[in-house]
TrEMBL record:
Name by which UniProt lists this protein: LacI family DNA-binding transcriptional regulator
Pfam family, one: Peripla_BP_3
Organism: Flectobacillus rivi
Domain named HTH lacI-type: residues: 5-59
Transcription listed as a keyword: yes
Keyword vocabulary terms for this entry: DNA-binding, Transcription, Transcription regulation
Domain of life, per lineage: Bacteria
PANTHER family: HTH-TYPE TRANSCRIPTIONAL REGULATOR GALS, LACI-RELATED TRANSCRIPTIONAL REPRESSOR
GO MF terms, alphabetically ordered: DNA binding
Length: 339
């Protein structure tokens, strides 16, 4: 079924009344055993779910949105949430906010908890562990509106608010090249995270346009934690052809990279220049200060919320998803500006 399955669909397919289907699903008496079994079998095959949300909305709109993010400790996510909250309040909605801690299992639990009739739609940034999207597809089949931001999921047809990650990474590599770097490495996130993969795409495109040979060993992947960034950076610096430029997928990981470089006595930016993403406040307080790609975080939140509420209030069974891609800009500081 291409839409949320209802008892009317089951009744029509089995050529019985809606009342009969309802009684069978609730295990009521005076239903023939074979009829009850046919209803239960078809309900299972079509993934029928009682729409608790729709039932509650007939009585009273909740006007509540569910927001799921990987980590509230990241400045990026907390800034996006400011935009989400501002737009939601302006439109008369409230938020239920949860974080996954980059855990797929916690993402499942959070979705299940919030979808039990409490929220009218979801704004989601997927965890780094998420590669199975069955839980998202179940919500889509139930007709619950969803908007993704920052992290995409290939093949999931929902509205999305992203930034031009390919262009941002391209600009970062060009900047390093213009400042004398010729052996440029990329410290990436997990291979399952689309935003990281898009930045790798921009990195590779820039190398191609600059006629710099691509080397597999100069792209390293790791989880979003400091210790992993330190270890990966040590590995890069131990290569025979040591990188003189480093693009890091996020500021948090870039802190680990700069710690690793300092521990090895490598000067930043004179020996290795560093550029990262998100432009968190910490960038201005590091020594040297960190060059980073700034994103319109508040705007991301506002647009994501507007798209979600528009879909909720449109009320159409088949809503054409919208994709917004926003521009970024590179904030150049000491870590990549050679004298």
């Amino acid at each position: 079924m291409a839409h949320q399955v209802t008892i009317k669909d089951i009744a029509k397919h089995l050529n019985i009344s809606v009342a009969t289907v309802s009684r069978a699903l609730r295990d009521m008496p005076d239903i023939k055993p074979e009829t009850r079994q046919a209803v239960l079998d078809l309900a299972k095959e079509w993934d029928y779910q009682p729409n608790v949300l729709a039932t509650s909305l007939v009585k009273s709109r909740t006007k509540t949105l569910g927001v799921i993010v990987p980590d509230l400790g990241y400045h990026f996510f907390s800034s996006v949430i400011k935009g989400i909250e501002a737009e939601a309040l302006y439109r008369g909605y409230t938020l239920l906010l949860t974080q996954t801690g980059e855990s797929y299992e916690r993402e499942l639990v959070n979705l299940q908890t919030l979808s039990r009739g409490q929220v009218e739609g979801f704004i989601i940034s997927l965890s780094q562990e998420t590669s199975n999207y069955d839980h998202i597809n179940r919500l889509i089949r139930k007709g619950i509106p969803i908007v993704f931001f920052d992290r995409d999921a290939v093949g999931i047809d929902v509205s999305k608010v992203m930034v031009d990650n390919v262009g941002a990474a391209y600009e970062a590599v060009i900047h390093l090249y213009q400042n004398g770097c010729r052996e440029i490495a990329f410290l990436a996130g997990p291979k399952s995270v689309t935003v990281s993969n898009q930045r790798i795409e921009g990195y590779r495109k820039a190398l191609q346009d600059l006629n710099i040979p691509f080397k597999d060993e100069l792209i390293v992947h790791g989880e979003y934690n400091l210790d992993k960034a330190i270890a990966l950076t040590h590995g890069l610096m131990n290569l025979t052809d040591r990188p003189d430029g480093l693009v890091v997928v996020s500021d948090r990981l870039a802190v680990g990279s700069m710690m690793a470089l300092r521990s090895k006595g490598i000067s930043v930016p004179d020996e290795v220049s560093v550029v990262s993403f998100n432009d968190e406040p910490i960038c201005s307080f590091l020594t040297p200060t960190l060059s980073s790609v700034a994103q319109p975080t508040t705007e991301i939140g506002r647009i994501a919320t507007s798209l979600l509420i528009n879909q909720i209030e449109d009320g159409q069974e088949f809503y054409k998803p919208q994709v917004r891609v926003l521009k970024t800009h590179l904030v150049i500081r000491e870590s990549s500006r050679r004298k």
